[in-house]
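This protein record is not my work; I was only asked to verify it. Would you go through it and say whether the fold makes sense for this chain? Here is the record exactly as it was handed to me.
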Amino acid sequence: MLKFVVLLSFVACALAGTIPAGMVSLDNGLAGRIVGGTPTEISEFPWQISLQRSGSHSCGGSIYSTNIIVTAAHCLQSVSASVLRIRAGSSYWNSGGVVISVSSFKNHEGYNKNTYANDIAVIKLSSSLSYSSTTKAIGLATSAPANGASAAVSGWGTLKSGSSSLPSQLQYVDVSIISESLCASSTYSYGSSVKSGMICAAASGKDACQGDSGGPLVSGGVLVGVVSWGKGCALAKYPGVYADIATFRSWVVSTANSI
């Protein structure tokens, strides 16, 4: 079964067999999507934020600058900026740190809700973050990491596929990069669903999951991916799929300067 991974409320309703109005169904065969993770402190991942709708955690994101967040486009479908907030500088999505409202956001013009192509977006905050040991920006990759490179993905997503319960404390897992071409090959089971601008990552029993969408995949100290989609969580032959930051770097930079 495929899982939509941006809203706790969606997950709960999906388990009940319903989909709230205005949210995207992934019955088309693709899914946005920490399993096998370890609790961690925000000081280890100070670029991580919780993107919240009406006070509930919905997605992750990464601090690009004091007032710009990078996340996934599918996290921002059918929503207005007025109901969005981010929490930064806390290991917990529901307490601590600072909460700042969103003034505007922009999805990639080529985002396709059916294929998850170009699944990246930029958020502008209504006021600026203050950097500290728990709140820092992360640089953007200029090239995709090599196949097999070590990476880490973090977030407040569910601890197993199909769960409707989010951990309050930030989690992370170590994974290995799988190149776009290898991820689309017969070694795995996605085939042509893995498209240009996507990169994959996996480790046995470890993956991003519901609620981690939009969050950071980091390798070599830079942001290399944004959690996008996948089949289930931590399933063999189905790695996590991410928007490849190196592909979208120029778009992020130009959009951050113009939004």
Notes: The chain has one domain: 1-259.
